[in-house]
Amino acid sequence: MKQSNAAEKLTADQNQLAKHAIQVHKFGGSSLASAQCIVRVVDIIRQHCQLNDIVVVSANGGTTDALFALYHQAILQTETLEISLHDIKSMQAQLISELLSSSNEKRLLTQLDADCAQLKKWLENSPQQHQADILAFGELWSARLLSEVLSEKVCPSFMVDSRDFLVIDNDKACQVNTQVSKTQLYQLKQRHKLAVITGYIAKNSQNETCTLGRNGSDYSATIMASLVGALNVTLWTDVDGIYSADPRVVPSARKLHRLPNGVAKELGRLGNPVLHAKTLQPLTDHSTHLHVASSFDPSISGTEIGKFGQIAKQELSVTFLNDLLLAQSDSFTGNLGEQAQQEFSAVCGDDKAGFIVIHQEQQKAVSQWLASHDTEVKFTPASILATVGHKVIHHGDVQARFKRSLRHSKTFARVNSPNEHSIMAVLTQACTTELLNNVHHDMTKDARHIGLVVAGLGNIGERFLEMLPAQLSRVPALENVHLVGLVSSKKALFNNDGIEVNQALSLYQKDAQPIDKSELMSWLANHPYDELVVVDVTPSEQFSLLYEDFFKQGIHVIGANKWAASSSTDNYKSLLASAAKSKSLWFGNTTVGAGLPINYAINDLLNSGDNITEISGIFSGTLSWIFETYDGTLPFSKLMLDALSQGITEPDPREDLSGRDVQRKLLILARAAGFELSLADIKCQNLVPDALQTLSIPDFLAAADQLDSFFSEQLNQAKEQQCCIRYIARFSVSESGKLTAKVGLEVLSNNDAFANLTPCDNIFQIKSGWYQENPLIIRGPGAGRDVTASGIHSDLVNICQRLNTRQSQVKLKGID
Ligand code: ADP
Ligand code: ASP
Ligand code: MG
């Protein structure tokens, strides 16, 4: 029995392992810079890794720089070499001592001693010959330490020196010998142990150490991913994604949530340190996902790099490279110019104007190459500043903006990259922080991307969607709005790349999937937009209960749904507090009066310092129609049934006659005017007699004539005084601050402002400090497909205008 259980367990484990596709996690130097950082990394590995995954590490932060410095000191034979060697060793020794138990500490310190003795020998005797060997210690120490810490604290782990399997055929181009490397890696892998592999270093075909260039561990990670067919590569770093500019230098940089492969490649080429230029090369089949995340705050979703569509295309970034050389020569024209660009992997060039832009260390090589063509060359110090985005060179407006932004700089030329993803300005001055910030501002100032989710695809939701394409192309504030979700009570369609707005409903019919609350919330929590707006056109109380969660996630809400705004005082206050805390906006212009700007009017009065003392009027289109039409010619019940058949009432007319809807609307307006009250504080006259309230709908409709005597009596009494009857909402506040609120039938003079409406119209009357004797009146249709949908559009424009000007926050080292 026991045995069979164990066997079953083993197969289950194996199945589990087989099911788990390999993930590669690369930790950069900045994530391994101190004992505290390493502890954080260990936690990430505990939570995110399984035993057959691969961890790739860079040298502990600053170590490669220190090793380079040692190397240069050795070449120059400076006296400080000994001190620097001592410093580098003590930093390692300190990490070891802080992180390991004493027996392991001792072992690693002994190994460190041996390594440093070897390092010293190379530095003193043959630094040039051993440059790569010297640099390799950084990754070696880092991998050894991390794997020991993991073995002590998390799971069995072993360290792999990538030089034991990774073979580079061509040092210069860093071309991997895939077949040999793959076979050797599989030979090295140990079952049920987590591999920690050195990044940055490899062997060449002569069996010598070589490096993949600065920041090369990113490339190591994707090479290894391709060797083992990994599903995911995560580059864990000290910033929570790739930003529209270096966030250390440009505080207003925005996170690029989704970066198309081509753009990422171009950013790497143009010096973005988060991505080594070759990082994407091994992932040509695009079946491996690549993303950048922060080891300082793993909960934040970072930047995903992949094959993305229309959304990501519009994200622009700005990057620069200083310390370059502009090389001008006749030989850089025509075919020869093209050859030169390729030969030197020039940053950019123009074979008509006859120049290439290269790195300073290439000057000698370029001069030699030109010597063989017997032409003169002029070298000028230069820099490039580029704006990068998907197929950006084809955007005339971006070209124009970029040019304008650089009008005060010494721009030698502007060049489009052959891959079409960058426009580069060649500057004969260094790119300063100020210039970078200015150009970044000009290129990205109105580029906050706003995701739009529409919940409720009934009559109004449909109309809202029908109007959406025209609004998006017409209203500048909606330029960066992307419809990304359509939700009904049963199904949902989400697409991070945007749902084609012209076919929204048909796509929904075709592709929507059943969804539950937790799936919905999980999607909303992980959306890749700067801002997300949920438009709630559902009539559902259930859906309104999600607002609290929306607000906690910083999601904005446009509610046509009255439930949340008229919920209990405690709930309402808690919603407002949650929204305020996470800076979520909550608009609900259409909860009362459909598209009529009553909520805006109230807000404006408050903003202008006014005091509202009274709000009254006819708030129900249905009750407006019924009482404007009811003159005694037809019995009340007949009129009500007419209204029902025309769709003027709810399917159960008692919902209108109960006055509850009007009561909720009055509560919403009174709250909007700054008063604290609840539904219970608003007296409500239910026009349905008790006896009819509990009947089924058909029974109620059959017994509707029982309503008639009451209404004819009311009407006749009113008529006798040259008056009429209307269903009125009234809220007022006395000078002493006492609130009075009620909704019910009132007898009004035939001349009253509320007595002469076009049937179905709403009327709102506000008395305030500014509008006392002569009140402010807003009247017009208070229901209907077009006016309600357009009221929601008005809210959307307002929200987007506010959001477009918001600054995003950079998460650098887990700090806002
Ligand atoms: P790692 O040590 O993880 O390899 P790097 O130091 O090489 O990380 O790269 C991360 C750093 O790159 C960040 O600290 C950030 O300041 C800088 N950086 C420069 N440009 C960008 C950018 N556009 N987006 C994000 N980070 C950038
Ligand atoms: N340690 C190497 C460097 O500092 C490689 C890397 O970090 O990716 O460049
Ligand atoms: Mg790096």
Descriptive labels:
single chain; alpha/beta; Carbamate kinase; VC0802-like; Rossmann fold; 4 domains; 8-stranded mixed β-sheet; 7-stranded mixed β-sheet; 29 helices; disordered N terminus; binds aspartic acid; binds magnesium ion
Topology:
Blueprint: H1 2-19, E1 23-27, H2 35-48, E2 54-57, H3 63-76, H4 81-99, H5 102-125, H6 131-153, E3 157-160, E4 167-170, E5 175-176, H7 178-188, E6 194-198, E7 201-204, E8 209-211, H8 217-228, E9 232-237, E10 242-243, E11 255-256, E12 258-260, H9 261-269, E13 289-294, E14 303-306, H10 310-313, E15 317-328, H11 334-343, E16 348-350, E17 355-359, H12 363-371, E18 378-388, H13 396-405, E19 411-416, E20 422-427, H14 433-444, E21 450-455, H15 459-474, E22 481-487, E23 491-494, H16 504-511, E24 513-514, H17 517-525, E25 531-536, H18 541-544, H19 547-552, E26 556-559, H20 569-581, E27 586-587, H21 598-607, E28 612-618, H22 621-629, H23 636-645, H24 654-657, H25 660-672, E29 683-684, H26 690-693, H27 697-702, H28 708-720, E30 723-733, E31 739-749, E32 761-768, E33 776-781, H29 785-804
Bound molecules: adenosine-5'-diphosphate (ADP), aspartic acid (ASP) and magnesium ion (MG).
Residues 28-29, 58-59, 64, 138, 199-200, 214-218 line the site of aspartic acid (ASP).
